[in-house]
C-alpha cells in the first residue's frame, strides 16, 4: 500500500511541477538548507530538482540556498540568516537532528513553516516530513542478505549488523527494519555497531575486529548504507576472506554499483532523490500559499510523505541505474571494471 501511495504522490507532484505557475500566485521566500557537500547527490540531484520545481511553480518567489558543510552550528546560522531575510518556509535536511530542534523553534517564532527533509526532526512544530521509508529499507536490505546466505552445517549463519549514526533518527528506523526482518530468521547475530557519523573507516575497523573475534563465522553483513558497506568489504578483503560474503547497502553510490558489478557487494537500495526534492519543493510552494496538503501518513504525529525505494541487484543496474540516469555506463565501467562490465553485459567485448 505504501508503494502505491508514494508513487501517487510522486506522480502528482511531477504533474504539478510541470504545470504553469498561476499568475495570481503570491510572492514569498523559501529557504533550502542541505547538510553537506561531501555527498554528491545534494548538489547534483536534490538541489537542482528542488530549484526547478520552485522556478516553475512560483517564479516570482525568492529561493535561498545554503549548504552547512557538515556543521550544525553553521546550519543554525544559515537558518537564522534566511529567517532574517523573510523566509516563510524552510526545507531543512539537518546536520544534527537534535540541534535542528532549535532551528524549528526559531522558525516558529518567526511564523515560518519547516519541512523536515530526508531526516526526521522530533518537534511537534515541524509542518511536514519528506523522506524515504527507512524501516522498509532496513527490511529490504536484511531480506536480501538472508536470501543469499548459505545455511551451512551444524550452526546458524553468523551476521554482522553495521548501523548508521546513533544520533540519526533514520538510522534508528533502519535498525528497526533490520530487526523486524530478523525476528524469525535462523541466524546468529555476532555483533552490532553504530558507526559514528556514518563513518566508513569506523565500520572497517569494527568489522576487522569482528573477523578476528569470529574467524570463519561471518556469513553476511547487513550494512546500513553504501559507505558502510565499502568499509565492511575493505575489512573482508584485508582479512583475506576468499568466499563471497553478502553485504547490503543503500544510496546507489557509484562505488557501490561498481562493487556490485564486480561481485563484491550484494545489492544496494536506490532512492530517487530528485523525486524526493520535487515533493519537498511542491509542499514548500503550497505552504507558502497558505495551503495544507493532505499527507498519506504520519511519523510520530508529523504529516509525512514517504517515498518507496528500489532494490538494485546486479541484473537491475542497466534498467534502474543506467536508464534511470543515476550513473552512466562510462562512469560505472571505468578501466578497473571493464572486464566485470563485460561479464555482466553492461558493455560489449571479451573479458580477459
General description of the model:
With 352 residues, the protein is α/β, with parallel strands linked by helices. It folds into two domains: 2-133 and 272-308, Response regulator (Rossmann fold, 3-Layer(aba) Sandwich), CATH 3.40.50.2300; 134-270 and 311-343, 3-Layer(aba) Sandwich (Rossmann fold), CATH 3.40.50. Helices cover 44% and strands 17% of the residues. It contains 13 helices and twelve strands. Helix 2 (41-57) runs parallel beside helix 10 (273-288).
Give the SSE layout:
Elements: H1 2-18, E1 29-34, H2 41-57, E2 62-67, H3 72-84, E3 89-92, H4 100-109, E4 113-117, E5 128-132, H5 134-148, E6 158-163, H6 169-182, E7 188-194, H7 200-213, E8 218-223, H8 226-238, H9 254-262, E9 268-270, H10 273-288, E10 297-299, E11 302-307, E12 310-312, H11 317-322, H12 329-332, H13 338-344
Parallel strand pairs: 1-2, 1-3, 3-4, 4-5, 5-11, 6-7, 6-8
Antiparallel strand pairs: 9-12, 10-11
Helix pairs in contact: 1-10, 2-10, 3-4, 5-6, 7-8
Residues in helix, %: 40-55%
* Number of strand elements: 12
State the domain count.
2
Per CATH, the class of the largest domain reads Alpha Beta
CATH topology assignment of the largest domain? Rossmann fold
Major β-sheet, in short? Answer: 7 strands, mixed
Uncertain residue ranges: 1-26
Radius of gyration: 21 Å
At CATH level 2, the architecture of the largest domain is: 3-Layer(aba) Sandwich
User: Based on helices, strands and strand pairing, what is the structural class?
Assistant: alpha/beta
Task: Look at the structure and name the CATH superfamily of the largest domain.
Answer: Response regulator
Order of helices and strands: HEHEHEHEEHEHEHEHHEHEEEHHH
Q: What spatial order of strands do you see in the largest sheet? A: 2-1-3-4-5-11-10
Protein name: Substrate-binding domain-containing protein
Pfam family, one: Peripla_BP_4
Organism: Microbacterium koreense
InterPro entries: Bact_Solute-Bind_Prot2, Peripla_BP_I, SBP_2_dom
Amino acid at each position: 500500500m505504501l508503494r502505491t501511495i508514494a508513487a501517487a504522490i510522486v506522480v502528482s507532484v511531477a504533474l504539478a511541477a510541470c504545470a504553469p505557475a498561476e499568475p495570481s500566485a503570491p510572492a514569498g521566500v523559501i529557504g533550502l538548507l542541505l547538510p553537506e557537500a561531501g555527498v554528491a547527490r545534494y548538489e547534483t540531484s536534490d538541489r537542482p530538482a528542488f530549484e526547478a520545481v520552485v522556478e516553475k511553480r512560483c517564479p516570482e518567489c525568492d529561493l535561498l540556498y545554503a549548504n552547512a558543510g557538515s556543521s550544525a552550528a553553521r546550519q543554525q546560522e544559515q537558518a537564522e540568516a534566511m529567517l532574517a531575510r523573510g523566509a516563510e518556509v524552510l526545507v531543512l535536511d539537518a546536520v544534527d537532528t537534535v540541534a535542528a530542534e532549535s532551528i524549528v523553534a526559531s522558525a516558529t517564532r518567526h511564523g515560518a513553516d519547516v519541512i523536515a527533509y530526508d531526516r526526521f526532526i522530533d518537534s511537534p512544530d515541524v509542518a511536514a516530513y519528506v523522506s524515504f521509508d527507512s524501516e522498509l529499507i532496513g527490511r529490504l536490505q536484511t531480506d536480501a542478505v538472508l536470501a543469499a546466505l548459505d545455511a551451512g552445517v551444524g550452526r546458524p549463519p553468523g551476521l554482522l549488523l553495521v548501523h548508521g549514526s546513533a544520533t540519526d533518527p533514520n538510522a534508528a528506523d533502519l535498525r528497526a527494519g533490520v530487526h523486524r526482518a530478523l525476528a524469525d530468521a535462523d541466524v546468529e547475530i555476532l555483533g552490532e555497531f553504530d558507526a559514528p557519523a556514518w563513518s566508513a573507516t569506523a565500520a572497517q575497523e569494527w568489522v576487522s575486529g569482528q573477523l578476528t573475534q569470529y574467524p570463519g563465522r561471518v556469513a553476511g553483513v547487513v550494512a546500513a548504507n553504501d559507505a558502510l558497506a565499502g568499509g565492511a568489504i575493505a575489512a573482508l578483503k584485508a582479512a583475506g576472506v576468499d568466499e563471497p560474503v553478502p553485504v547490503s547497502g543503500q544510496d546507489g553510490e557509484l562505488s557501490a554499483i561498481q562493487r556490485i558489478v564486480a561481485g563484491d557487494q550484494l545489492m544496494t537500495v536506490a532512492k530517487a532523490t530528485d523525486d524526493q526534492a520535487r515533493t519537498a519543493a511542491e509542499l514548500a510552494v503550497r505552504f507558502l500559499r497558505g495551503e495544507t496538503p493532505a499527507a498519506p501518513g504520519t511519523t510520530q504525529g508529523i504529516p509525512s510523505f514517504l517515498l518507496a525505494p528500489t532494490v538494485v541487484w546486479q541484473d537491475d543496474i542497466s534498467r534502474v541505474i543506467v536508464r534511470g540516469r543515476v550513473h552512466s555506463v562510462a562512469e560505472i565501467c571505468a578501466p578497473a571494471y571493464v572486464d566485470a562490465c563485460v561479464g555482466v553485459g553492461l558493455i560489449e567485448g571479451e573479458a580477459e
